[in-house]
Structures are given as structure tokens and as C-alpha cells.
Automatic annotation (TrEMBL):
This is Putative hemin transport system permease protein HrtB. Belongs to the ABC-4 integral membrane protein family. HrtB subfamily. The complex is composed of two ATP-binding proteins (HrtA), two transmembrane proteins (HrtB) and a solute-binding protein. The keyword tRNA processing does not apply. It is a multi-pass membrane protein. Residues 285-404 form the ABC3 transporter permease C-terminal domain. Pfam families: FtsX, MacB_PCD. Keywords: Cell membrane, Membrane, Transmembrane, Transmembrane helix. PANTHER family: ABC TRANSPORTER PERMEASE, ABC TRANSPORTER, MEMBRANE PROTEIN. Part of the ABC transporter complex hrt involved in hemin import. Responsible for the translocation of the substrate across the membrane. Residues 18-240 form the MacB-like periplasmic core domain. It comes from Paenibacillus durus ATCC 35681.
Amino acid sequence: MNLFSLSLRNIRHRLFLSFLTVCAIGATVAFIVLFSLFRDSVEQGAEKGYGPFDLVLGAQGSETQLVLNTFYHIGAPTGNIPASVLDQARSDSGVDKAYAMTTGDNYNGFPVVGIDPEYFLTRYGDRTLKEGALYAKTGEAVVGSHVAQTLSLHVGDTFTGAHGLVAEEGHHSGEEETGGHTGEGETEEHSHEGFLYTVTGILPVLNTPDDRAVFTTVDYAWAVHELQGEDREITAVLVKPSTLLGAHNLKQTLDGNSGVQAAYTSKAVSDVVNAVDQGSQLVEILAGLCVLLAAITILLSLIAAAGERTKDAGLLRLLGKPKSYVWMTLISEGMILTLTGLAAGFLAGHLAALIFREVLFAKAGVRINPYLWNADHGWIAAGTIAIGLLASLIPAFRMYRLHPLALFKS
């Protein structure tokens, strides 16, 4: 019987303990893989979450809150600013493009965002919509791919929004008898039943937070609330500067002026990523504990195996098998368990990412790529094999040192 066949036979002999060992290794690897994919997805999503808009203008308050609400559609806006701020930004020679944004309403928990349709051309280039066309007049809207899929929206459907950034009960939409869609979670007090939106287009999959929003004209908020003249305000201005110096000069001009703040988008996003990295240190500690437990599991499994097979090992030695054969039997057994657990962990980690990616995207705007393979995978594989080999060496070394008669009599 060759070495590999003998090791497999020994594993089958202790099938339950071997199964637990593989599960411990697999669960540890899967956890670390999922954490690695999530961390990379957060960093990649943060990098492309704001596109070419390096500066954002909004009401004074938290810069992070302003950026997260404007570009990632998370949380509440810091407030409103005069519509004239848009004219000030556009008149600045250092500004290439500037777009006003209005927010404050939702449709079944998805934010309704008012913005110039040219925004999509500036940010995403000349991409083709999945269906229909961009909005052109008040009351028309396009919806992100995730919104369309979640709420089963199509071109021609109609719906009414609700005041606030989250629906009262957060249900998915129902369909009226007329064939349009209305939000089930809207109460009569907060819904805008007199203002009807018509879906004119469905955005393609953009893999950005814009997949989770409904877009319409900037003046929708004014029309819904019947605002006139000086009462018309905007939530933010997205600025694509022509140069970095232009962004700096505009920030110096408007920041702190009449309740307006100007925030560097990259700085605010970097602060968020740094906060996530600090939180991930706790996860790394937990991952380290899982690795330690997996190593102990392998060690105990192989010590138990060595204890059960001392007489077998002694008999093999007396029959003329060299010490190296007994040594390699335990090591190969440990490595088979380790490699099986490693493969199962990689599969489970990526499968978990595939299962939970839409849930995570819906809640946090982070889309995990379950098909991503990065440098961490190599380190995970190398570390797992090293730990498995080290745990295998301890009982193997004990068996190696004992005399054949001592093995046979023990």
C-alpha cells in the first residue's frame, strides 16, 4: 500500500474527527477570504464612488456626512443651501462642470435624487441605458439597476414618492390596479400622492451607489412642495474642477460663506476608509484566534491519530519500513486534511460572497465581487499550509523518535 492510500485509509478510519478538522480549517479560511473580499470591495467602491467630482458644496456640518449622502446615498444631508451657489460655482473659471442636487424624498426606501441628466454623461461617459431614455421634464425619472430589479420597475410604470430618506415601513412596492407602482410603506401624512413620477429609463449596471437610487429633475422637490422664488433651495453642488488649483480656489472662496461648506471628496472618503480599517483590526484579531483554533484542531486530531496507531506504526517498523515512512504517514495525513479544508474554505468564502453581495449592497452600498482573486489568497493558502505542516510535525516527530518495540508495546 502506498503512502497516499494509507493516509486516506487512516482518515476514513477516523471519519468524524477528520470531518471536524476539515470543517474547522474550512470555516477559518472562508471567514478570512470573505473579510478580504469585503475589505477590497470597500476600498474599490470608495475609490470610484464619487467619480470626477473632487469637490462638493453643501450646508455646513460634517464633511463626511455631506459626502456620504451626496455620492453614496447614505444617511441624511447636512441641510440645504441657496440655489444661487450653483451659479457661483459655474461662474468660477476653475470649474469644468457643476451640478445641483436635491434630495429628501424616497420611494420604498430608495432615495429620490434630483440632478441634471448631463451628470450621467460627465460621470459615466456615453453609456447606453438598459432600457428607455433619460428624463427630460419634471415628473419623469430613471431608476438604478438595483432599484429596478428589487421593485420590478419598467419603462412606463408610475409611482409616488414619500417625504424623508426612508420609507415608513420599508416594504417593497406593490402594483396599483392601473398598472403603476406605489410605495406600500408610505403613510398618508408623508406621501406625495398628488405628484406622480413616470419611469422613462432604466440605468445599466454601474457598480456604484447610483444603482440604488431614483433620479429625476432638480426641480422635483420644488414642484412637490410647491416652492417658489427664494424658497427654492438645493441640497448640494457636485463640482468637477478643471484643475486642482481651481478646486482649491473655489473652496477658499465659498467655504464658510453664508452657511456653505466646501469639502474635498477624496479626503472625506479617505477618512471613512481609515475608520473601516481601524474597525477591521478587531476582525483581524478574531481571524487570528480562528487560525489558532484551527491549528489546535489539526494538532489534536493528529495526536489522537498517533495514539491510535502506535501499534500499527511499530508493526510497520518491525516489518522493515524506515522511520521516514512512519514520519511521512502522519505528515501526509495532516496535509490532506489541511488542503481539503483550504479548498473547502476558498469555495465557501466565495460562495458566501455571492450569496450576500446583494444584501450587503442594498444595506451599505458595497458590492462584493465574489469572483475576485487577490494577493491575499496566496498568503491565506501559504499560511494555512504552513500551519497544517507545523501541526503535523509535532506528533510525527514523537512517532519518529520512539523505538519500534516501544511503539509496538505501547
